[in-house]
Amino acid sequence: MVDFGQIPYDQGSGTIWHVNPTGRVERAVEELTMPVDVTTGTAGELYVVEFSAFYNRRTDRFTPGTGRVVLARTEGARPMLNDLDFPTAIVRGADNNLYFTTHGAFSEPSSGGIWRVPARTGFTDTTP
After folding, report:
1. How would residue 123 be classed by pLDDT, with cut points 50, 70 and 90?
2. Could you report the per-residue pLDDT of 35-65, keeping only the tens digit for each?
3. What is the spatial distance between Cα 52 and Cα 92, in angstroms, rounded to a whole number?
4. Residues 6+ apart with CB under 8 A from 109
5. What is the CATH number of the domain that holds 79?
6. Rounded to whole angstroms, how far apart are CA atoms 38 and 48?
7. Residue 97 has pLDDT above 80, yes or no
8. CA pair distance 18, 37, nearest whole angstrom
């Protein structure tokens, strides 16, 4: 489960929760910033979409171009892709490639995109 964080969405206040087979809820990864979705890689690693790095309290808006895809582990998160505009979803396809969306909110109509990260190359090629 993904916990977006505490309002006003302070950096590092987001968490990924794990529910084990007995129903016990445990923290899997902490100190994320506005996580909105999570998927597993082929080796069970977690890939998390962080919506935005900043929430401007004065303007009551999220900052574009600050979203990320991170590789999350219990010891913390490592950024894999930076400077994304409002990513909102990530999934591992049947082909083992990762797919994530951008411009999922607060963007012009038809500006959204689905990006592919090939499993064979990891994060070296992101082709829309």
Report:
1. low
2. 999 999 888 889 999 998 877 778 878 888 9
3. 21
4. none
5. 2.120.10.30
6. 4
7. yes
8. 13
Q: Find out whether 54 and 63 touch, Cβ atoms under 8 Å.
A: yes
The terminus-to-terminus CA distance of the chain in angstroms comes to 27
pTM of this structure: 0.81
Torsion of CA 18, 123, 126, 118, to 10 degrees: -80
Q: What secondary structure, in 3-state letters, does the chain show?
A: CEECCCCCCCCCCEEEEEECCCCCEEEEEEEECCEEEEEECCCCCEEEEECCCCEECCCCEECCCCEEEEEEECCEEEEEEEEECCCCCEEECCCCCEEEEECCCCCCCCCCEEEEECCCCHHHCCEC
Cβ 50 vs Cβ 14: under 8 Å: yes
Q: Supply the range of the domain harboring residue 72.
A: 2-124
* The total number of structural domains that make up the chain: 1
The tokens describing 97, both together, are 């490639």
